[in-house]
Amino acid sequence: MGSQLSEESARPLMQAYPILSHPELPTQAAALLTYWKQEGVDLSAVQALTPTTESSLLTVLQHILTYTGEINVDHQDVWEVMSDATSLQFGMATGEGQSRAEVTGPQLWNSSTMLGDGSLPAQRILLAIQSGMSAELEMDELTQILEYLMDQTGRQAEVVFGHGLEPALGERIRLLLVGRRIILT
User: Fold this and answer.
1) Domain coordinates of the chain in residue numbers?
2) Which GO-annotated molecular functions does the record name (predicted)?
3) Over 70: is that where the pLDDT of 66 sits?
4) What is the fold, at CATH topology level, of the domain defined by 25-181?
5) pTM for this prediction
């Protein structure tokens, strides 16, 4: 099997790339992606990267790491999901209106990209939800989104959740997903 990175072996990365000032966060996402590619060279998820999927994954990582909020996810949360992923699922979806949570959860899941074997069980999912300031995320919307994702994973996955505000979203919400799938032994 591929390279297995423990939290201890990832610690040098976390120390080398501490939380940076806002304008440099895309650089942090790129550094994280580069390190994952180097350390996970034997993982099927890394081997499945193409220039297009790498660019898309980088965009998702940049959005996750750029907008901090009330419940924050950071580079360590992202690393814990990516570090030993045999397969990696990621995506981004935006919705608005009365049924934005009802529509955006399935949109996120169905349009996400899978690197590697999608039949493997989801083990850990990082979900970042960003909402505009004029229509913040409601608790029932959060519940609806989480319930949908848990139904899709068979309820076996651990979910790491973050929520932040992005004023430019107005009345929309944006869901960002990075999910790890591994071969269970």
Assistant:
1) 25-181
2) GTP binding
3) yes
4) 60s Ribosomal Protein L30; Chain: A; (3.30.1330)
5) 0.82
